[in-house]
What does this fold into?
Amino acid sequence: MSLAQSQSSNAVLVGAGDIANCDERQSELTARLLDKIPGTVFTVGDNAYSHGTMQEFIECYGLTWGHHRSRTRPAPGNHDYESPQAAPYFKYFGDNAGPAGRGFYSYDLGAWHVVSLNSNRNAKSWGAEEAWLRADLQANRSRCVAAYWHHPRFSSGNKYGDHAYMNALYKILFERGVSLLISGHDHIYERFAPQDPKGERDPHGVRQFVVGTGGARLYSISKVKANSEARNTAAHGVLKLTLHANRYEWEFVPVAGQSFHDRGTASCAVVAGDVRKQAARR
It folds into this structure.
């Protein structure tokens, strides 16, 4: 398929993180949402609780979200790394998880470029990821780019909150004009306004979602962080993104019996380079 053909129609990216625990069957309900939503499924880590074993992937994840494994492009979480170097995660997802053992890769989806990253500092590939991300985004030809990883750079969740060590990768996303970042780890839903790496509102910044609502027990929020625009701690569900050529629509879709929704639309961030240089000169 040519680039023009791949950009000719809208695409859907849908998913969540913190998903399958055999002791808590909410992942069955979120999986039923995926049954009714076409498109590419993403995960933002902690796919199989509690230790990311192959048995847990088969019996917990496999019987719920695993029904959509062939269309899933995952990211690993800390519970996946409870097994040495997340070996069962890479074996279970195979080529859909990118190069074996690395945990970061990219793909094109409609008019968009999508980057799945590894936020686990104990991964053997941790040191090489920053250089790879710079090169990948430098080579990208798409105006609109989305990224996802497990540990949120910003979060109002009272369990974990911000992860400052992710700022180096966040800064690269900001510099290269990436529009969206999706994370999990805190078992909440939260949407931020576009921000720069310092957490200051910036219309050309990265809009981050925290979607740790895939099935694990939900957490709470204490102090709401600056630029948090929407949040919920009661509803499991998935984030559905409809990706247009120059903009995107988001919708949080809750499981049956829950009423919380969050939806909206925005234009893609302006491609980096010139905009960042102009801002620095002012």
Summary: The radius of gyration is 17 Å. Confidence is low (pLDDT under 50) at residues 1-8, 272-282. The chain has one domain: 3-281.
